[in-house]
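Researcher: Go.
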Amino acid sequence: MPHTPGPWVVGMRIYGQDSYIVRSGDTQVGIAHGAPNAHMFAAAPDLLGALKEMMRRYQGLDEAATKRGCGDYYANYTLRLAHAAIAKAHGQQQADA
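Model: Structure:
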């Protein structure tokens, strides 16, 4: 099941608590403790979308560099980290990068 589509926004603070409702339109997506966590939570769909787009664009560049024999160890490591983060966002297990 896909996640609730974005954009997600930080909504109301829960009265008497340091917790905030995170919403997508009229749908409550979740509750986060503390404003910094609420903002990170609300940014999740945007971050995932940006990471997927970066991966899509970088993948072709990396393949071309590898064919020329100039693959970059650190770039490959970063790609593995990105793949792991995307898998985690989709609820899939992936070996540690």
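Model: The radius of gyration is 17 Å.
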